[in-house]
Amino acid sequence: MRDRNVISWAIISLVGFILINFLMNQPFVQIGHVTNDFWPSSLLALVLYAVPIALAILNWKPSFYLLGLVIVLYSLGLLGMLFVMWGSSHASLTIRLLMSLFSVGMLVANAYWLVLALRLRKDQQDARDRKRFGK
Model confidence over 51-60: pLDDT tens digits? Predict the structure, then answer.
């Protein structure tokens, strides 16, 4: 059951990143130069998230470590988006605040994923220790 929670929150993280990526490529964010890299970066995110999620579904336990690296990588992207919104964007204060709130919300969701993954790891270690040492 906990595996499903961890996988569900990873999918929420992916969807949130793709949504922020889409919004950052819109003219209303006014970052000066809008690079039209939504599709390549979203496809890369989809692949980087999908591989460890598929491995987790197949019950390969180290997949959560790989997924953790991916989520940390995309969390850094969310931090970068905050810096861009407040350093380079000429959008209204409302747009910058909304984008920042969404980014911070996704950072909180990613932190919650980490908490769930660490709890899952502890449960798995405890079960393995009980089996090994007969407690």
Answer: 999 999 998 8
Alpha carbons 22 and 14: distance in angstroms, whole number: 12
How would residue 125 be classed by pLDDT, with cut points 50, 70 and 90? confident
CB of 109 closer than 8 Å to CB of 6: no
Of 107, 115, 127, 125, the closest CA to residue 6 belongs to 115
CA-based nearest residue to 77, from 19, 5, 9: 19
Q: Which pTM value belongs to this model?
A: 0.88
Could you give the CA distance from residue 118 to residue 102 in angstroms, rounded to a whole number? 24
For residue 42, count CB atoms less than 10 angstroms from its CB and return exposed for 0-12, middle for 13-18, buried for 19 or more: middle
Looking up tokens 């998230």 gives 49
Q: Does residue 32 register a pLDDT over 80?
A: no
What is d(CA 63, CA 46) in angstroms, rounded to the nearest whole number?
A: 15
Sign of CA dihedral 67, 14, 12, 55: negative
Of residues 89 and 104, more confidently modeled: 104
